[in-house]
Specification:
By secondary structure, the protein is mainly alpha-helical. It has 4 domains: 46 residues; 47 residues, no CATH class; 217 residues, no CATH class; 65 residues. Helix content is 66%, strand content 4%. The strands form 2 sheets. Strands 1-4 form a two-stranded antiparallel sheet. Strands 2-3 form a two-stranded antiparallel sheet. Strand 2 and strand 3 form a beta hairpin. The radius of gyration is 30 Å and the shape is globular. 22% of the residues are buried.
Length: 424
């Protein structure tokens, strides 16, 4: 999906509008063939060089004791039995491998085995996805509950009159005209000077102002409900803010539990406590569906936070050209771009869940793929054994907390969310 369906669809929608339908699809497929050939070459070279798993192996070797020596338990227990002879007078090595597992240290060797190409592709995809997931999940675990609670705290307390609505609507109309004038100016600048760095900066600022304008228009409609039953619409609006508060509080609790699970079960060896693994197991003992349901809630919540981080990262942090998805107001190219990013990040989210809940998911197919083979894959296993990605994710959690606490989540134009309901 991330490397075939999404790119070819984006190539189609980004194609020249002057081309016919068949020409646009042909062009999109030709571009996609080039992408597939490039990826196939990269994966083939990588698979031939590092497509093996490496497992640590403890090697022991021992001979068989003669029947006459079975009564001599002291000699059998305290001495190494070399193949082809009875117990020796002293412990010693045979062919470089220790044959006494009781009194000696056990040597460790490495056993290599080539994995299937499919497993290798999954592993590389998940590793690439981790680069996105560590940022998106780290941001989303904080921003998802924070923004919901903040929306409740900045909710409108009452409706406005028609005259006030008209006054504010005129103000929005004036802002819309200013944005349109800036857009026309940028079009002329693009024709004369092209898309330079200054142009892209101005364009990004203009896009932010358009988003703010759309947001202000939506908020204005909330404080002046219209339709056949305005009172009913206002009640629904108020109830939705309370629902956001409840979801935000629950989301904050789940985020804290996720972070605690990582600290208690992944960062320490041996783990301090199985924590949520034990909770899921006990819920299964009450009713088999309860543990599975709780496990699914935590996994899907992590994906929600990843999506939130994807939108938040592109919208506010501005180091990736990601656009927010709004019902009825999302360009298809932006929609597909977000889907591609989230699909890549979700592959890493699956691996992360398999690690965090490995005790609960033990002896499952997902644990066999993500818990054994991928974590032992030659070349990338050190990234997982040292938890580099997870430490980076915690770094993004800390940076997001500081950013939202110090700077505020939306400071392009206003300081507080309540201002959107008070601006004229």
């Amino acid at each position: 999906m991330s490397f075939i369906v999404v790119p070819v669809t984006m190539f189609y929608y980004e194609g020249d509008s002057d081309l016919t339908l068949m020409q646009r699809w042909t062009q999109a497929f030709l571009y996609e063939i080039g992408v597939i050939i490039f990826l196939a070459c990269v994966l083939a070279v990588g698979y031939s060089v590092g497509g093996k798993v490496e497992y640590p192996l403890m090697a022991l070797e021992s001979g068989l004791a003669p029947l006459a020596d079975l009564g001599n338990t002291t000699a059998l227990l305290n001495n190494c039995i070399v193949p082809g002879s009875g117990p020796t007078a002293a412990k010693r090595y045979y062919n470089g491998r220790l044959c006494d597992a009781i009194n000696g240290s056990i040597p460790v060797t490495t056993w290599s085995q080539r994995v299937s190409f499919v497993i290798y592709v999954i592993a590389i995809t998940a590793t690439i996805g981790w680069l996105l997931f560590m940022a998106f999940a780290g941001i989303g675990l904080v921003a998802f509950p924070f923004d919901l609670v903040r929306e409740f705290l900045g909710r409108p307390k009452s409706t406005i009159t028609r005259s006030e609505y008209i006054k504010r609507a005129q103000g929005l109309g004036g802002r819309a005209k200013e944005v349109k004038d800036v857009g026309d100016k940028l079009k002329r600048e693009e024709r004369e000077f092209g898309r330079g760095r200054k142009f892209r900066t101005k364009l990004r600022t203009l896009e932010q102002q358009v988003l703010l304008l759309e947001e202000d228009q939506e908020k204005l409609e909330k404080v002046f409900p219209q339709g056949e039953d305005p009172d009913y619409m206002w009640i629904i609006t108020v109830l939705m803010f309370w629902v956001k508060l409840a979801v935000g509080i629950l989301g904050g609790i789940v985020s804290i539990l996720w972070l605690a699970q990582v600290v208690a079960y992944i960062f320490t060896y041996p783990p301090l406590d199985p924590f949520l693994n034990t909770v899921f197991t006990k819920l299964d003992s009450v009713f088999p569906l309860f543990g599975t349901l709780a496990f699914a809630i935590f996994c899907f919540y992590l994906i929600l936070c990843t999506i939130k981080g994807c939108l938040k990262c592109g919208l506010n942090f501005l180091f990736l050209p990601v656009y927010p998805m709004r019902p009825g107001a999302t360009l298809m190219s932006a929609f597909l771009f977000n889907i591609g990013l989230v699909l890549l990040a979700v592959s890493a989210a699956i691996l992360f869940c398999a690690q965090a809940f490995s005790l609960y998911a033990n002896s499952t197919a997902i644990q066999e793929i993500f818990g054994n083979q991928m974590l032992s894959l030659q070349g990338i296993k050190y990234l997982y054994s040292t938890h580099v990605f997870i430490y980076c994710m915690f770094g993004f959690v800390g940076l997001t907390i500081v950013y939202l606490a110090v700077r505020g989540p939306d400071r392009w134009k206003r300081r507080k969310l309540e201002d959107v309901y008070a601006d004229g």
